[in-house]
Each structure stands twice: as C-alpha cells, then as structure tokens.
Amino acid sequence: CHSVDVDACDKAARTPVDYAVLRGNVRVATALVRRGAHLNLIRSKTDTPLFSAVMKTVEALGLVEALLAGGASCVIPNQDGWLPLHATAHRGHARIVTLLLDKSATSIEASGRNQ
Hints:
Helices cover 50% and strands 0% of the residues. By secondary structure, the protein is mostly helical.
C-alpha cells in the first residue's frame, strides 16, 4: 500500500481537509488533522480551513475546535483581509470568538510578545 498525501490539492487548489470543512464533517476533518494535514496553507483563491469553518453554522464549533487543536493559525486573513475572528464576530458565534481569542492570547504568550 502506498502512502497518501493528506495535503494533495485538486484543480481548485482544495485539500481533503478543505472539503471536510466545507461539508461540515467534523469526524473526517479530525481524522485528517490527526494524520498531519497542513492547516495553514495559503492559496490564492481559497480560504484556510479555519476561515471556512467559522463561516459554518451548525458544525462550526466542532470544526473550529478540531482545527485549533491541530495547530490552525488564527492570524491568516482571507482575500478580503478578514481574519477568522472578523468573520466569527460578524456571524455572532460568541463561543467561537472566545476560542479564537484564547488561542490568540496563547500564541502571543508562547512567542514572548505579550501586549
């Protein structure tokens, strides 16, 4: 059996984790994260999986938790310059706003740039 590239992009520059998030499939997204899917790929025409996840409604919390646990960055903007926090606040997801703020604070502390 050959090894499978969990970050393989299709013609639309989407990876398997992108599709799992777009479909709202927390189980598949979590499995891909556990297999080392790269969550912070910057591509010209697609959002990061975390940005796509915060735009979901029902599945958003589980997807965001899985992606953050896998190391997704909170500070990669989309094409319009919005961070996942902007989109989350705009959509009114209070619990996800808190998760993103907590993750951002932890990242700042870890990097030694407390402000």
